[in-house]
Design goal:
Helix content: 25-40%
Structural class: alpha/beta
Number of helices: 13
Strand content: 25-35%
Number of strands: 13
Shape: globular
Length: about 375
């Protein structure tokens, strides 16, 4: 499975001598291709059969193949000066930015020409994921989506090898803030690629905060230019899975600033049984995290007027998962068949929550519940 990637991780040589990326922070964004292989190399028919089994007798393991860096944007911050009260970036520097961006977009265009759809899937991983972890997750998502889109991994400097526990979490949190400008660069560059009809962004855990902040700023900048974000950026879906975000922050940065009005649909998957989010909630002094909220809990924090307004004017849906998943309960968006099938249906059909294609339980306004046994 061939994936495209963009990253601000520092490059490194792996123990086996191959090229890769570590957890250090790079001031420039690199892009390239990565190949994910399946151990044993089953035939397509065997692979498809195993994929459809509810209880798999054969477990398939992925491994990282080649990683090939194709180019690198100039480092940030860009050199600039105040001239006549305006900030102006060096023209020569920007010319280099656009030159490298064109090279990157050429690679995306090439894959679009071979793809059944002129659509892009971007996956942004969470806390403590290295390059390989994130690539495996995207490869799995792309496979179950039918391999119809161009898969792009946006991977940021998480999972510091020399730091663990709370210090490791703090490193990743600051890395998630460090990468926001670079993700903004990347999203805006994709918006300049006319061949792309739709962009779907899937973010998990700590990566949801990265996406929320980057999209908020890109949408505000686009509106300030007098342009329609939905037309300029063509974001069909933003999916926040197990978001490690404070509820209060989400309410102000997403709802109050009308961020989701810049995209077709925004979907939040939460689970009260998410143990990883419980730990994060404890670290932040017990303040409610979106990733473990129940629909009733959200409604209790809003006025009737706010609930009515959000339900009428917002394109966001909060979907609560009440079933079982992995031991930690944090990766249910891919490990639980009910949730993953809903995600696949959402992206492939664009169906609304509660439609015949997505018959989940409605809890009022924008709140829905998925239970084990949900159609898949």
């Amino acid at each position: 499975m061939k994936l495209l990637y963009a990253t601000d991780r520092e490059p490194r040589k792996n123990k086996d001598g191959s090229f890769g990326y570590g957890s250090g922070r790079s001031t420039s964004v690199a892009f390239g291709t990565a190949t994910v292989e399946i151990k044993g190399q089953p035939t397509w028919d065997e692979f498809a059969k195993i994929s459809l089994q509810s209880k798999r007798e054969t477990k398939l393991q992925m491994r990282m193949g080649s990683i090939s860096e194709k180019g690198r944007l100039p480092p940030t911050p860009h050199p600039a000066a105040f001239i006549d009260g305006e900030i102006r970036v060096s023209p020569g520097h920007m010319a280099k930015v656009y030159e490298v961006e064109a090279q990157m977009n050429s690679g995306i265009s090439s894959m679009l020409s071979e793809s059944p759809r002129n659509e892009v899937i971007i996956y942004v991983h969470g806390y403590n994921n290295d390059f390989d972890d994130a690539a495996y997750q995207l490869a799995e998502l792309w496979h179950f989506l039918g391999r119809k889109h161009v898969p792009i991994l946006y991977t940021w400097p998480a999972g510091h090898e020399g730091i663990s526990g709370l210090r490791g979490y703090n490193y990743d949190r600051e890395s998630s803030e460090f990468t926001i400008y670079h993700l903004k660069q990347f999203i805006k560059s994709l918006g300049r690629l006319d061949e792309i009809e739709k962009i779907h962004i899937i973010a998990h855990s700590r990566g949801t905060d990265v996406v929320v902040n980057a999209m908020r700023e890109v949408i505000m900048e686009t509106r300030a230019q007098g342009k329609d974000p939905q037309v300029e950026l063509r974001i069909a879906n933003i999916i926040l899975a197990a978001p490690d975000i404070s509820y209060d922050v989400m309410l102000q940065r997403v709802v109050a600033e009308h961020t989701v009005s810049g995209v077709e649909q925004a979907t939040v998957y939460s689970s009260p049984g998410d143990k990883a989010i419980r730990i994060s909630e404890w670290l932040y002094g017990g303040f409610t995290r979106v990733g473990k909220m129940e629909s009733g809990e959200v409604k209790s924090k809003l006025t009737e007027e706010q609930i009515e307004y959000i339900g009428t004017h917002s394109s966001i849906n909060l979907i609560e998962f009440t079933g079982k998943s992995d031991k930690v309960g944090h990766s249910y968006f891919s490990s639980n068949r009910a949730v993953s099938s809903d995600l696949v249906t959402l992206i492939n059909t664009g169906a609304q929550a509660g439609s015949p294609e997505r018959p989940m339980k409605h809890m009022g306004a924008i709140y829905w519940v998925i239970e084990d046994g949900y159609p898949f």
